[in-house]
């Protein structure tokens, strides 16, 4: 349809379906930084459905600040913080494989400001798209070695159920951080309403 | 297809703002994939009022013409799909990436998991992209996709549609949707389309035939405007 100016209602979301790979995953965007970089962090995870089966046709996207805590977007105009748009875009995309697995190579983002002048703990924004998801789910990855910052993070502390809160903190596994995403069920990941 | 009880799903996140719910049992794949715990309200911060510019990989001149990606012309009805990307205030969303994908005219995707016994077209891959211009305008040349069967319920067929993926200006405005064609006889039995409960909101997913866009002796034109979640000034409390 054709939109008229003024207050407009948003176009509804529809599922990404099963056939998006050629269009959306034609090039690998899972490495936000070289995995050989001394401060690169490997994120590994599996997307599970409510029966505990891996979701083999999902797409995971991430968005994060750089190591200084600045987003690569002119709307983040805190010019006292360095920006490195040539080497760090802050955006990543990974499909899931037959085992439901996705991976990213990232750096830990710096802290960014939150509501009420409180700082937020370092975190990565996450969207998951899949067949059977009529709209994306949104979650966040927090870091296990940031206990103090996590404890005072305004978003984490707004989640009353400690078990649900825990789903947002990755955990160390070998030389990687594991962040599994449970779409449904007892262990369901905490998802956000934007 | 509507025989199953929805009682066990009573505590679903409710539809809002014309958006579909996560759980729509008639669309069978939602049953094990829809989250059921209440969503956490995320306060607006720079983390979601900013978003990727996606300027890393340049867009090619022909990336928005899906009929010129191979040696020959694809089979099917050539169409032009154009429109504007706007925010909730009606302001154009400029320089924003749109990625599209679709079945060919016979209703077959090039994807290796598509088993529909309809022919592949060696001259059609069905993927394209472009950036919106200064007025938020975009334009694709393609062929009209065919309807295709899927196994959601007995004799289930998807209405003809083009998938669109948009970034907009912030993490908040990210949208993946489907554009449909006017008057499709398959709307009534399609649970993905019907999952959007508000009939006015469903209309917002249907393109309109446009004689102004139509090019004589060449291609039919369809208009499709897309409205992303509103742009907001960065709240002051987000500043240090």
Short description:
With 194 residues, chain A is mainly beta. Helix content of chain A is 7%, strand content 27%. Chain A has three helices and twelve strands, in the order H-E-E-E-E-E-E-E-E-H-H-E-E-E-E.
Helix content of chain B: under 10%
End-to-end distance of chain A: 25 Å
Broad structural category of chain B: mainly beta
Mean pLDDT of chain A: 95
CATH topology name of chain A: Protocatechuate 3,4-Dioxygenase, subunit A
Q: How many separate domains make up the residues of chain B?
A: 1
On the 0 to 100 scale, the average pLDDT of chain B is: 89
Number of spatially distinct domains of chain A: 1
> Which sheet architecture does the biggest sheet of chain A show?
5 strands, mixed
Class inferred from helices and paired strands of chain A: mainly beta
CATH superfamily of chain A: Aromatic compound dioxygenase
CATH architecture of chain A: Sandwich
CATH architecture of chain B: Sandwich
CATH fold annotation of chain B = Protocatechuate 3,4-Dioxygenase, subunit A
Question: What is the helix content of chain A?
Answer: under 10%
Describe the structure.
- The complex is a heterodimer of chains A (194) and B (240).
- Chain A has 194 residues and is mainly beta.
- In chain A, 7% of the residues lie in helices and 27% in strands.
- Chain A has one domain: Protocatechuate 3,4-Dioxygenase, subunit A (Sandwich).
- Chain A is globular.
- Chain B is mainly beta and 240 residues long.
- Chain B is built from three helices and twelve strands, in the order βαββββββββααβββ.
- Chain B is globular, with a radius of gyration of 19 Å.
- Chains A and B meet through α1, β5, β7, β8 and β12 of A and β1, α1, β2, β3 and β4 of B.
Lay out the secondary structure.
The complex is a heterodimer of chains A (194) and B (240).
Chain A: H1 21-24, E1 41-48, E2 58-63, E3 91-95, E4 101-106, E5 112-113, E6 119-120, E7 123-130, E8 137-142, H2 147-151, H3 162-166, E9 171-173, E10 176-178, E11 181-182, E12 192-193
Parallel strand pairs in A: 1-10, 1-11
Antiparallel strand pairs in A: 1-4, 2-3, 2-7, 5-6, 7-8, 9-10
Chain B: E1 40-41, H1 46-49, E2 78-86, E3 97-102, E4 127-131, E5 137-143, E6 148-150, E7 156-158, E8 161-166, E9 175-180, H2 191-194, H3 199-203, E10 208-209, E11 220-223, E12 226-227
